[in-house]
């Protein structure tokens, strides 16, 4: 190695030296971590889902907003399955085996119901 360059056969290859701190990944600013969601549920569907969840979990309806997480309402996985069963009965649809796995908020549940309703009406 001569003068910051390595001799590689007949050509010179520049070897850069970076400080250790520069090699670390810089965390992404929080503005780039924003979750974007697109709700598909109709307002009536969302309202019915909110009321059903409040009733199932015995909580005040005012505490159940579209962004509310089931866990924040004290719901566990069994409660989530029971909520989905109540919603299936209320709307006359079936969300299938894996339906409970993909929802964590009231909006997720309403969107799932709306999606299943739309698919059922197309058939």
Q: What's the helix and strand layout?
A:
Elements: E1 5-8, E2 11-14, H1 20-23, H2 43-57, H3 77-91, H4 106-122
Antiparallel strand pairs: 1-2
Helix pairs in contact: 2-3, 2-4
InterPro entries: ACP, ACP-like_sf, ACP_chloroplastic, PP-bd_ACP, Ppantetheine_attach_site
Subcellular location: Plastid, Chloroplast
Organism: Quillaja saponaria (Soap bark tree)
Overview of the structural elements:
It comes from Quillaja saponaria. 41% of the residues lie in helices and 7% in strands. By secondary structure, it is mainly alpha-helical. The chain has a two-stranded antiparallel ribbon with strand order 1-2. The protein is globular, with a radius of gyration of 26 Å. The protein starts with a strand and ends with a helix.
User: What is the radius of gyration?
Assistant: 26 Å
Largest sheet composition: 2 strands, antiparallel
Order of helices and strands: EEHHHH
Number of beta strands: 2
Strand content: 5-15%
